[in-house]
Amino acid sequence: MSLLDKLDAVAAARKALLPEGIDVFGMPIEEVYSATEARVGDRRILFLGTNNYLGLTFAPECLKAAHEALDKEGTGTTGSRMANGSYSGHRALEREFAEFYHCHSGIVFTTGYQANLAMISGLAGAGDVVLIDGDSHASIYDGCRLSGAEIIRFRHNDVADMEKRLRRLGERSKSTLIVAEGIYSMLGDQAPLAEIVRVKNAYNSILLLDEAHSLGVLGKTGQGLVEETGLIDGVDFITGTFSKSLGSIGGYCVSNHPQLDQLRYISRPYIFTASPSPATIASARAALRLLRDGTELRRQLWQNSRQLYARLDALGYQLGPQPGPVIANILDSPQQALMLWKGLLDHGIYVNLILPPAAPEGKALVRCSVSAAHTSEQMDHVGNVFAELRKSIFQ
Amino acid sequence: MTTDYNNILSRLCFHLKQLASPDVVIVPETDLINELAIDSVKLLSLVMEIEDEFDISVPLNVLADVQTVHDLANLIQHIKSTKQ
Ligand SMILES: Cc1ncc(COP(=O)(O)O)c(C=O)c1O
């Protein structure tokens, strides 16, 4: 099969699955009204599939900081962190992340995707092992591939399975990097961190925790699962992203291991890409302060999340195992998921559609992401629409 | 060595039969993806079953090269033998 034939096969597979005439993936947003509302075509829609957990994308403090940085430092850095791309803002944000986590040091990356690529491929290499949860995000899988290390998966959130695999590795468990996520992006459930840390210590491995979806969401000051569980000392490296609760774009890693800094010299996804733009960094810095002090935002976020989770659960939808801002409706077939997704959109509600092979275990997901900026009335309305659609989808 | 391989092969066929339609005959040359219609998600869960049965871990890196039932049996035997 030629290179282009392969792409034609992709097109044919998509055509067979997806209806004509609507952009299921990459829906064109014409105008953005607020953290939770936008225009698609000629209709106003409610965003219920963004990762804007704290609703900070229009926070006046973040807008002001971004405007100032734009005026003072221009639209882009046009260079790598390793060359001309480390402005005072980038370095300040690294210190602020380290302080926020009470850690030795931090590194800022251009995206969260690259943070995982950079950390995993910087820590592990040929001859080492990466032991990852089966439901890991693509950036974790890709980081593992880039590393050249042996990639072993354990069953999702199954620490007994993880331990079995460490035992099978024998002495090699000492050169093993374990990777887990604070809140899993697909099902919205949390990693059993206490158990993971206990086993990782017993086998002298290294643990990296991706707090992409838990930053700002879990813990008193929003550090994530490490704060919620009080286990920060058991985690060697924490990665995360600015693209969700911080409402910007970029990635970070913090650690108490002083060796973290050495990754700046060897990690390709850190070196061979331009650094985040000054405005991006400035808004992330302002957002990090709001996030840390965002007790009220977290209260609202969790109230909304529990409200919607309880309603969908009561309606009989099959959901991820744990309430939280990521609420995954698990459907048996892509067709059902597509019907639900389309039905919601027809009622002006935008959610994420996740089809196999991206969804775990070959299922299809309709995933809602709740924000602190949603109102209780909006959650009620969403619940009512789900109730109405249930009849036609499961008839 | 060969008895080990044959044992692995028969256990593998046992697991594959649960996934494939009943009228398919499974031989070592059977192509997992094209003939048994086992997609990557099914293959990974099959591998997890087999890993438990033989007390091994199959790295994802080498799984990409597996096409036939024989390839998979061979791989399992290789991992088992390097472990001991
Ligand atoms: C678990 C997880 N890690 C990393 C990322 C990547 O983050 P970013 O959007 O900053 O590239 C995402 C976001 O999609 C994610 O869900």
Architecture overview:
The complex is a heterodimer of chains A (395) and B (84). Chain A folds into 2 domains: 15-47 and 295-393, Aspartate Aminotransferase, domain 1; 60-292, Aspartate Aminotransferase, domain 2 (3-Layer(aba) Sandwich), CATH 3.40.640.10. In chain A, 42% of the residues lie in helices and 16% in strands. Chain A has helices at 3-17, 60-73, 88-100, 112-123, 138-147, 159-169, 193-202, 225-229, 263-266, 268-271, 278-292, 295-315, 334-346, 376-393, and strands spanning 31-32, 37-40, 43-47, 105-109, 129-133, 150-154, 176-181, 206-210, 237-241, 251-255, 326-331, 349-350, 352-354, 364-369. Chain A has a 7-stranded mixed β-sheet with strand order 4-10-9-8-7-5-6, with helices on both faces. A 4-stranded mixed β-sheet of chain A has the order 1-2-3-12. In chain A, helix 3 (88-100) packs parallel to helix 11 and helix 12 runs parallel beside helix 14 (376-393). The longest helix of chain A is centred in the C-terminal third of the chain and has 21 residues, at 295-315. Chain B is mostly helical and 84 residues long. The model of chain B has no long low-confidence stretch (mean pLDDT 86). Chain B has one domain: Non-ribosomal Peptide Synthetase Peptidyl Carrier Protein, Chain A (Orthogonal Bundle), CATH 1.10.1200. Chain B has helices spanning 2-19, 40-54, 60-63, 69-83. Classes of the chains: A alpha/beta (395), B mainly alpha (84). The interface between A and B is medium-sized, with 16 and 16 residues. Pyridoxal-5'-phosphate (PLP) binds next to helix 4 of chain A.
Helical content class of chain B: 55-70%
Largest sheet of chain A: 7 strands, mixed
Low-confidence stretches of chain B: none
How far from one another are the termini of chain B?
A: 13 Å
Specify the oligomeric state: heterodimer
Broad shape of chain B: globular
Low-confidence stretches of chain A: none
Q: Largest sheet of chain B, described in full?
A: none
Quickly give the CATH architecture of the largest domain in chain A.
Answer: 3-Layer(aba) Sandwich
| Average of the residue pLDDT scores of chain B | 86
The CATH superfamily of chain B appears as: ACP-like
What is the element string of chain A, with H for helices and E for strands?
HEEEHHEHEHEHEHEHEEHHHHEHEEEH
